[in-house]
Design brief:
The chain is an alpha+beta fold. Helices cover 18% and strands 22% of the residues. It has three domains: 3-59, RNA-binding S4 domain (Structural Genomics Hypothetical 15.5 Kd Protein In mrcA-pckA Intergenic Region, Chain A, Roll), CATH 3.10.290; 63-131 and 216-250, 2-Layer Sandwich (Alpha-Beta Plaits); 132-210, Alpha-L RNA-binding motif (Alpha-Beta Plaits). It is built from seven helices and 17 strands. A hairpin with a 3-residue loop joins β13 (166-172) and β14. The relative contact order is 0.19. The structure holds uracil (URA).
């Protein structure tokens, strides 16, 4: 069956559809030895020899992306030294070794992404991309507006202030209520700790969204492969990082990244002057904004050797989504 060249390349996981088009236009793709710059050129993946930067796409193994609705009381890891059930027990029929992207607590439920695309997984977890995660939670009591405001501004936890969250009231009953909380960080037990910080506690927590992925009506214990479109959107989200890992030294459009001097370490801070306890701060300086962030150098370099191209890219079966879902074991 003939497919469009950019679709075939994107399906290997080395690039999103948009990036694949850039590769073609840049003359980095050949079909049967001929450079092809024409977008939409049709190829027969079974017969044509497609190369990107001289490397065969065919050599590739498929990338697999799936989402599982992790049930409560299941570890979000692949094995557990204590012998508790793990997400692996729910992956019947998945013959490729996939890894969970991030964690959910043992007693939490909901959307878990699993993939064998290591660079994508690492990138999605990187704080730089602020991939939003939404949790539907049942909390004890009803949080008033002041508490919801506090959650939205950021609350103090023992490991520092949280970044602003988005909180949507869903419903309330006599003794508890439901909220949707969206955060961009991934600290341990973060949502539970945030709710505790405003004086309540979480009774039930379900992750219903991660970036462009929605849990939808996937039953607890069931999984499904991502659609082409979903896998593509994930890649787009972290494209610049993937490009840097897979093609170190080049930017997303394939141009060399300009050299930038390494940053000097920040000079040590002067000691804080003693506070008198009254009036403005003794230093006369405004209090440091607690959510001021220092942005690091743009070039997040991978420690990997950076083997490059399509030989590392693999064909996606996430793309060829299998319809239907698998049920719990
Ligand atoms: N926040 C939590 O507290 N627990 C989870 O499992 C996920 C987010």
């Amino acid at each position: 069956m003939n497919v469009r060249l950019q679709k075939l390349i994107a399906g290997t996981g080395i690039a999103s559809r948009r990036k694949a088009e850039e590769l073609i236009i840049a003359g980095r793709v050949t079909i049967n030895g001929q450079v092809v710059r024409e977008l939409g050129t049709k190829v027969d993946p079974e017969r044509d020899h497609v190369k990107v930067d001289g490397k065969h796409l065919r050599a590739a193994q498929p990338y697999v992306y799936l989402i599982l609705n992790k049930p409560k009381n299941v570890m979000s890891t692949l094995d557990d030294p204590e012998g508790r059930p793990t997400v692996k027990d729910y992956l019947h029929g998945v013959t490729v070794r996939v890894f969970p992207v991030g964690r959910l607590d043992f007693d939490s439920e909901g959307l878990m992404l699993l993939t064998n695309h290591g660079d994508l997984a690492q990138a999605l977890l990187h704080p730089r991309y602020h991939v939003p995660k939404t949790y539907l939670i049942k909390v004890k009591g009803v949080l008033d507006d002041a508490k919801i405001d506090a959650l939205e501004r950021g609350v103090k936890l023992e490991d520092g202030y949280t970044a602003p969250a988005k909180v949507v009231k869903v419903s309330k009953a006599e003794s508890n209520s439901w909220l949707e909380v969206t955060i961009h960080e991934g600290r341990k037990h973060q949502v539970k700790r945030m709710i505790e910080a405003v004086g309540s506690s979480v009774i039930k927590l379900t992750r219903i969204r991660m970036g462009p992925l929605l849990l939808g009506d996937l039953a607890p214990g069931a999984y499904r492969f991502l659609t082409d479109r979903e896998a593509n959107r994930l890649r787009e989200l972290v494209e610049d990082r993937i490009t840097r890992v897979e093609r170190p030294g080049l930017d997303a459009s394939g141009k060399p990244v300009p050299w930038t001097a390494p940053q000097q370490p920040a000079p040590p801070r002067p000691p804080k002057p003693a506070r008198t306890g009254r009036g403005p701060k003794a230093s006369g300086q405004p209090a440091p904004g607690r959510r001021t962030r220092t942005v690091g150098p743009a070039g997040l370099r991978s420690k990997r050797s950076g083997v490059t191209d399509a030989s590392r890219g693999r064909r996606t079966t996430g793309g060829r989504a299998r319809e239907g879902t698998r049920r719990r074991p």
